[in-house]
Specification:
binds nicotinamide-adenine-dinucleotide; alpha/beta; about 50% helix; Dehydroquinate synthase-like, alpha domain; 2 domains; two-stranded antiparallel sheet
Amino acid sequence: MTFSGDFTYESRPGRVVFRPGAAVTATPSEAERLGLRCLLVVCGSRGEAVARAVADALGDSCAGLHAEARMHVPVEDADRAVAVARAAGADGVVAVGGGSSIGLGKAIALRTGLPLIAVPSTYSGSEMTPVWGLTEGGAKRTGRDPSVQPRSVVYDPELTLSLPAALTVTSGINALAHAVEALYAPDTSPLIALMAEEGVRAMTEALPRLASDPADRAARGQALYAAWLCGSCLGSTTMGLHHKLCHALGGGFGLPHAETHTVVLPYALAYNAPAIPEALTVLKRALGTDDPPHALWDLAGRLGAPRSLAELGLQETDLARAAVQVAGQPYANPRPVTEEGVRAVLRAAHEGRRP
Ligand code: NAD
């Protein structure tokens, strides 16, 4: 990337512990470091066994286990979790699981001010951001608040061993999307470019190994390291067209989060490509290709991930409504976003044809 010497970079307070086995061995010491003695552990129903092991490791410092996290944090779930935390007299929250569990932990932090420790089990990157989301009446609201950013993040690659191959691939490509958009964000910076390039390189190297052997421990470590880098990019920059499209398709049409990111990314990148020469230079180097949008589309295909919105259940008749929604909001994007342009991106993504 050419050095422009004109940027603002805000590093956020937070601590990262990265080690196999850390969920159980490091969470209690992280809680102690923060002076917390009464923690509510939250997780989703599928992650309950792992969260219970974390709760057991906390011993007397565990105020209870609340295994009710669901996708997109419905507001009534947040209300219930806040009530549980208050009734237990919790002085902190530990979220164990994917973006949905961490999202519930953030909702508690937002309402109560309680400090959050995150123990992620996917590559969503939510643990590195001050962004919260709540869904009410079918609409998802998001916002930024420093109080929801986890004070400590415990990365344990062993937690990700149970992530099925398909979700490993789509969650990994979800992480790539953060790095890609950070490279052309209005608030990008040289440090972001370094993290994004390394994140893309490490993730795209690890995913083919994990698609053929989800139990490859070295590749699990590498993918989680990449997710940390990509999540850090997400937390420090403003996302553009790609994330707006995925937000609209997830919130308004119920499409699954990681899969939607996987399908849309090559097309959103192809749309922005004429306006982002420097970002493309970085991506070409990281991906070892002359054509980053095609390389991402090809990667998804080779690893058996979905490549069309039709496969995810979006009807052709929904495309126009989605385009109006995404083109109608003001947000930063390197190339002007027109309704016609968004419709073309969505049409191509719906068909899944080569970008
Ligand atoms: P998720 O948390 O909903 O998890 C997907 C599925 O995988 C769930 O059924 C879960 O139980 C299961 N799972 C998770 N970890 C597993 C493991 N190790 N082994 C086996 N199964 C496992 O999905 P996600 O993609 O991690 O997160 C998506 C949610 O996070 C969305 O709501 C999205 O909006 C939000 N998100 C928020 C931010 C932010 O900065 N606020 C960033 C990224 C994602």
